[in-house]
Design goal:
Length: about 450
Amino acid sequence: MGKYFGTDGIRGIANDTLCPEFAFNAGLAAASALARTGRTRPRVLICKDTRASSDMLESALTAGLCSGGADVSPLGVLPTPAAAYLTRQLGADMGIVVSASHNPFEHNGIKMFDGSGFKLSDALEERIESIIDCPEKAVRAMRGRVGRVIGERGAGRRYIDYLISLAGGGLGGMRVAADCANGAAAFTAERVFRSLGVDVTMMSNAPDGLNINENCGSTHIEALCGAVRDGGFDVGFAFDGDADRCLVVDEGGGLIDGDMVMAICARAMKDDGRLKNNAVVGTVMTNSGVIEYARERGIGFFSAEVGDKYVLEMMMANGCVLGGESSGHTIFLDDATTGDGQLTALRFLSVMASLRAAASELRREVPVYPLVLLNAAVEGGNGAKAAIMSDPRLIDAVKTEELGLGGAGRILVRPSGTEPLMRVTVEAKDIETAESVAKRLANLINSMCAAR
């Protein structure tokens, strides 16, 4: 992780650590970095989610980009994967999304994609960071070279049509509940589902700027579970604020997380001959039961660090076309360069239709070992997280707990790439053991933070 860029762009509290002045400098730095790669008058697309602060930050970014000589096309509220798709389809040099994804409304963020629709390279992120820190390095456009704001009509419709074109047949009449997290999917999901003949009931699709991800969406799935179970739906889908994640709920209210979705789709793709190299990419957080399910079906498994950026890198390094995370980021590389929650929903519906299987049948095929995830708050940024990770007390404690598990489980302690947290994950044969080990490690981290 860099100074400002985490595993999923730049994050901060809106109007605090992520203020308009910073957004202006980030836009100016991005335009300057593009200019230094030889782009003359680069074009940048900007999408945003539904947070109250997104308009403010979009305006500041636009001003910075134009100051650096880039033309800007604002596309309005659209999912993050729409920005990745439209950037390459419209021949833009960069796509930017103003969003903090699954975080509460007071947070916001800046995600950037290159002209091919992929997350920026580490080298380009470092170049942008260096210009943010030293604004005198920026290339400021003068006179007729100052950038302009140029409209782009029909961009959202183009993205929606693309999703529809990727859907398989046989979806008509399926009863679906879709939780849009009061975010960007509220502007696209209903049109996608209804165009395919899906009988969809929308939930959390009335954003007011403050209710994004509030007790809804992929981070608060309880309401969707109850609605699907009690409403007689075939399946439910929960997106996050910028709709790059999707979790699934079966007809009985059971959760199908991102890793399980990936495994189920991998099986179907292998059967159809579409799973390149017969392998998928998960993360160090992927449940052992999911890995077992894949390998029993002749599907190889590669493990990446947590973060869809790292999943994508390993997919490309190993020639894989499917990868994902338990949080719901699922990448279908033949069709998209980043996780796309709505595409994931369509792929899952297609599996249900082609196998004529209920969602619960698919869920029960994938074994899941008990897993506990606890968070410990850490102040002091990435430097403080790195110090905790390298502390001998934590290293020794993890080794001791691993010995106690006797090989029947695993432990992962890692810094969050998007929040001021350390995450403690423990997988064990039984839930009681997993909980006790996770609590001991989380308490140790809390005590180390208190002593700093």
